[in-house]
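Bug: token stream looks shifted between consecutive jobs. Job 1:
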Amino acid sequence: MALVPQSPKMAAPSSSTSIFGTPLSTKRTQVRSGTRNIGRGGSVFTVKANMFRKFSFLNPLKKPKPEPEQKKLVKPETKPEKCPDHFTDFKPMKGTRKPIRLAFEKPLIEIEEKIADLKRKCAAVGFELPPRTLEAIESRYKQTRERVFRDLTPIQRVNIARHPQRPTFLDHIINITDRFTELHGDRAGYDDPAIVCGLGKIDGQTYMFVGQQKGRNTKENVKRNFGMPTPHGYRKALRFFRYADHFGFPIVTFVDTPGAFADLKSEYLGQAEAIAMNLREMFGFKVPIITIVLGEGGSGGALAIAVCNKMLMLENSVFFVASPEACASILWKKARLAPKAARKLKITARELVELDLADAVIPEPIGGAHSDPKLASKLIKTYIKNTMNELSKMSEEELLSQRYQKFRKMGRFTEEKTPEFDISPQAIEKLKMNIDDEYNKALSAIGFKATVDLLEQELQKAKTPSEREELENKLKKVKLEINQHLPTAPNYPALKSHHDMMKNVSRAQSTAKVKQELGEKLKRILDNPDTRERFDRLKTIIKDDEGDLGDLHPAVKILYFNERKKLQYQMAKVLSSFLLLSNRAAFEKAKYLAKKAYSEEYEDALEEVVNGVMKDTEEVVQKSPKLRRKMELVTKLYSDAEGKPGAELSPKIQALVTDVRRRIRKGLAAREAAKLKNEPKPEPEVKSEAETNVQDEPKPKGKPIIKITTRAKAIGPDSKFKSQAEAKDKN
């Protein structure tokens, strides 16, 4: 490298362009170039370089330090690394996350704290709990936990679906796939992170997975836009749908979004058009499409990837056109009435399956999917494989037709009313005459008419009991033979139709009679003036608060639960004695009737209870030939005693009736026990704060005077409107 001289006399020009010096490499030098004037009107281009900047000067007299000897490490033989199974930036979270508990889990938290406190106190005094005692305590806690999560209300399931620690789409993908490769981009300038697409394998079968991805913490939620896709996300999903359809890969979509992102930019970029395009195109794909709802499915944002052949919903997932909070704000102008809106909307998995909007419910681990994510993923994988086995048997035309018909029938409901049979005496007599006519025609057709007529004439002429008994036995044998040949008669269908109608009329007649008698007994309880007045006032307060019991004043809750409990016990006593129910069954049905008391739904509830009990009783009688014979004997004795005063009260009939009632009660109890056989041992209900206050409240010696003169707010401690009992307490 040469140093460029500053004077033109020091070096010869290198070219005719008056540039002095030799070319320099600028990789390791700092170059400064410029021009300056020389002489008359001429200019010289100069280049300066600091060539010593990167060099270090060492003292030649100083001996270099000897380098320390490095120990030779024998490296173990390592196998070449395999390619990772999941090509995605998403990684499982390290460490354990602090559990987040929901409001309805408060009773469980209290039990857990008591168990921990008991263990701590025992450890402090050096006492070890016996294993049997500890197992009993934990068993009761487990049963209580199962019951709490089995009987969740719709709004509680909404809260579980929104749980911050609920497994996301990619959490499940890592657990259920053998290999997964994430694919990016909508080929229109953006890759929406709220929708994740990729190819994955389950037991050798390749699937196209498309799902809405939420975050597991604040940072991820901001990155994923809280699971709310933009138009780019839906176009990205559509791109890979077409890719899967072209190569014949089944499509599995995962829904977990509160809705499509509704900001100004998304609307400007065509959010509605992107969703509509997905809906239209998904109806035309010739591969099986399975949709799994993981958490909440919000309106069109969820439906845009949910046009499928089979929709599977996790047990605690929800699917709605508007969130419960939004619905309550629109209908009642109060977002706090979201629990009521959740009940009315029918948004839970089981309710949607009953409405034929969803196809199956995937069970979750007790406590929700977040309590055991791997088990939840395992269940999802099993349902995907089973559903895929079912859909793989269908041709392309059948898949398209099934998907189309699935959505076409949504919203079509036919209310089928139970046919009301005419149970008037004239109608019953006419039906009997029709049955006799058809029966005689059938006997003539199969050749038994003359034989039966002859035996009946001889039976009427019989004088001695032995002759009568002999003829009756012959007639029974002939009737058994007739029953074998009766189906061959030409008019057998008409005869069977009349016979079935007679059975239904008899059943309706007995049900109406039971309902009338039971209604009269319960009416005496409901028509009590004091009870009716208190219920009317409480119902007025609840109605003024839009029917939401959870937001009432605690004092009103206490009064309401107290009155309903009294009514429930009185009704249970009547049901147990009249319908031959066990105490448990009578209490459950009385609880249902007490809830509907003094409302327009009470008559329907009463009819539902009576029909259910009559149906169970009929099944019990059909399964017990001995009981059936006894009931036939009772019917015959009553018919023989008709017209004879005092014959119905004979000891023989009364003893037989008592035996029949005992057997029916025993059969109903056995039937109920069979239903509860696989259920956990019943525990005391987890009571709300109001119900606990009802039990803890000291009972007054005299008859309490309860007088409510205004709405719930007027019952508060600071109000001048107080009940006489509160005023007496204050004094």
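Job 2, same session, no restart:
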Amino acid sequence: MATISLVAGNCGRGRGCEDRRSEFGSNSYFGKDFLASELLIRSFRRANGYWSKALKGSRNDNGKKFRVIAKVKKGKKYDYPWPDDIDPNITDGHLTYLSYFKPLDEKPKPVTLPFEKPLVDLEQKIIEVCRMADETGLDFTDQIGALENKYQQALKDLYTHLTPIQRLTIARHPNRPTVLDHILNITEKWVELHGDRAGYDDPAMVTGIGSMDGKSYMFIGHQKGRNTKENIFRNFAMPTPHGYRKALRMMKYADHHGLPIITFVDTPGAFADLKSEELGQGEAIAHNLRTMFGLKVPIVTVVVGEGGSGGALAIACPNKLFMLENSVLYVASPEACAAILWKSSQAAPKAAEKLRITAQEHYKRKIADGIIPEPLGGAHADPVWTSQQIKLAITQAMEELTKMDTEELLRHRMLKFRSIGGFQEGKPVEPERKHNMKPSDASMLKAADIESDLERLKKKILEAKVPSDPITDQATEKLKQDVDKEVTRAFISMGLQEKLESLKLELSRAPDNQHLNRNLKEKVDKLMHEFKQNLSRPGAYLGLKQKLEKLSMVSRLVELKEKSEKLKTEINQKIPAEVKAKLEQLENAQEGLLKGDPLDEDLVAEAVKAKKELMEVLKSANLEIVGVRKREVTAAPPEIQEKIVNVNKEIGGEIERIIDVAGLRGKIEELKAEMAKGSSSQKAEELETEIKEGILAALDNTALKQKVEKLRTEFASSLEVATDDKVAAENGRW
């Protein structure tokens, strides 16, 4: 909106100026100002947005001057929810213009969840085949149909065996229909009501009156955004105390006018910032809880996404509670629970199983009164169909509840919540009992303990003289029993115990002398596939995974040990008696050499010959020799050790003599002084090089060199004889 202000003045010499001002627009006003005309004109010319011009013929017959000064004002346009170009001839649908919730200009981008990756590959194949058909003009109808059938079967298998953490990701899907989407899909008329009558309207909580099948209801629910901008505006469906007080006002309004209440839950929890706590977040939620149990109208609640803690419960104390198939309801998010109990949010899948957050678990424990089905792929795959299923469930529940009088309605609501949970009578309770939320360290199997147990068992297996050792067999059997117990617990926690028991019963009825029929084999494969899929989730069943890895390692070691013993027996049978005698003689010589016996040159030659004969035997057994490993000898024989000490003394004495003869003593002292200074100068390096060259030039003792060479030969020969040639074999390669 724009307005124009005009200032018109008649100015005469020696007289005051009579000013007439008028404004054309939404407001008009008149007044008189006494101004100095020249100062006024100059100041207005300097001001932004004003203009001044002397009009033609502005001087009248009386000699008075007339000037016009104008300013254009831009008013703020109010952001109404209805457009500027409404058709004046419309006869219905007026209420749609009152809602700020409009269809999105752009279609939401498809989002693929982590567990849906196999479906993406099939979709890509279908797209490629369709593109190929368009480009080539060939008929690929059969191939496309087969791929689509395969895709539908994979989608069905995936969404009929979802884990709790997978259902949680579906409940948090960015494209999942929001509360207002469902309300607009199930109502013929809808008008949203705003404000808590305390100066605030929380956009995270939506309320309003709508009609279904000609009957009016009060709708209340958490509203998430459909994109980032809306999520920020709606505060990600986390209400402040104003939102809960707004919902409370509408509940009292509905109770006063006799309108049944329908609430929709879709929130991660109440907004827990400092300002909300200062404004009484806990008090607002508690007030809602107390008030809902006293309302005299029917209340039906539908959990359409995720329901977090008291933030969800503040509008969810109904006579009937329904949950969508992939919705969740929890007292704490799995990520928060995992961070508290397991000190890492990576254990969220395990926490989701323990918390029992799914609709199926709540229905089993009689917290939820019914499960509303969703299409394959989640509610976002077909929002309208999902909304109609919600409408059907609400309508049936309202038909049942509206037949009750006020007393029956209140008692029905009270008994619903009193029946949740369980208790025991006649069991003594300890007066003071300490509860430790963290599992006992004694009962927890740490990774370090598993590694030590595995190394200890591995050592026993490798050191066993025979393949079947009683101690090793006992430890392996105990490990198998532990794994069996863990697997049974895993089947129970996955909800597969009933399927397992029924499958065991069918297997027991099958004849022993016949193979499994195709139907039974498919059931077994399907159950094992489901079990492995649940087991492979990150952070789930860590103890069982560790024990399975340990058992697998032990089984491989036992198998390798048996193969090794079997192969050793076969080789011993193929080695001639003469070679065995030579090998035994070499072992005796080795023991004597370690005791200090003199080295026999003939025995060294025999050792080399026996080695060659043994390699020929292995080759004749169709075994390929890939390497020969020598056992390290830590110490030389005593006789050679004594010779080494004597030779070192002779070398040291000879070096001292050369230093005195060559006159290098002074240079050595000079080098020590330089090094004592901590200097790494070029002078120190030159002194060190000069001393080394002088010693090497003077050290020309032929007899000493011969002693060193002889000692080196003797030491090498003793090592060759003292080493047991070890041949390692695996899978026919030696």
